[in-house]
């Protein structure tokens, strides 16, 4: 398979195998990579996904033409979701703040 610019070994593993447990045996070791490998675009990786991994997840990505690329998704997600706040923001310091609550804008 050809790697798209910005894809990580985690992206490749989920996209091609649908199962992160296969990352070492099917992606990293056979291709001489590390978990932190910087994969450039157009790199060819050898992945034998036939009969391996989660078929439902692999089919979902394939049928919907989804190519996982967390670098591009992360940038889009952060700039469009979490930083789209109208200023000024007023906070009552006497009230507890729920840091786990996120609002989609």
Label this structure with key terms:
105 residues; mainly alpha; 4 helices; 38% helix; 0% strand; globular
What does this structure look like?
The chain has 105 residues and is mostly helical. It has one domain (9-82). The protein has four helices and no strands. The chain has helices at residues 9-17, 23-31, 55-63, 70-82. Helix 1 (9-17) crosses helix 2 and helix 1 packs across helix 3. The longest helix is centred in the last third of the chain and has 13 residues, at 70-82. The two termini are 36 Å apart. Residues 73-87 have low confidence and may be disordered.
Topology:
Blueprint: H1 9-17, H2 23-31, H3 55-63, H4 70-82
Helix pairs in contact: 1-2, 1-3
Topology as a string of helices (H) and strands (E): HHHH
Strand content: under 5%
Principal-axis shape: globular
- Distance from N terminus to C terminus (CA atoms, Å) equals 36 Å
| CA gyration radius, whole angstroms | 19 Å
Residue windows where pLDDT falls under 50 for at least 5 positions: 73-87
**Helical element count?**
4
**Percent helix range:** 25-40%
Chain-averaged pLDDT: 76
Sheet with the most strands? none
Number of strands: 0
Provide the number of structural domains. 1
Give me the secondary-structure category.
Answer: mainly alpha
């Amino acid at each position: 398979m050809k790697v798209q610019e910005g894809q990580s070994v985690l992206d490749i593993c989920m996209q091609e195998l649908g199962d992160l447990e296969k990352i070492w045996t099917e992606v990293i070791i056979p291709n001489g990579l590390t978990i932190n490998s910087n994969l450039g675009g157009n790199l060819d990786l050898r992945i034998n996904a036939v009969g391996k991994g989660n078929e439902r997840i692999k089919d979902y990505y394939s049928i919907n033409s989804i190519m996982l690329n967390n670098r591009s998704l992360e940038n889009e997600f952060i700039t469009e979701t979490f930083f789209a706040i109208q200023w000024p923001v007023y906070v009552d310091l006497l009230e507890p703040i729920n840091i786990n609550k996120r609002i989609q804008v």
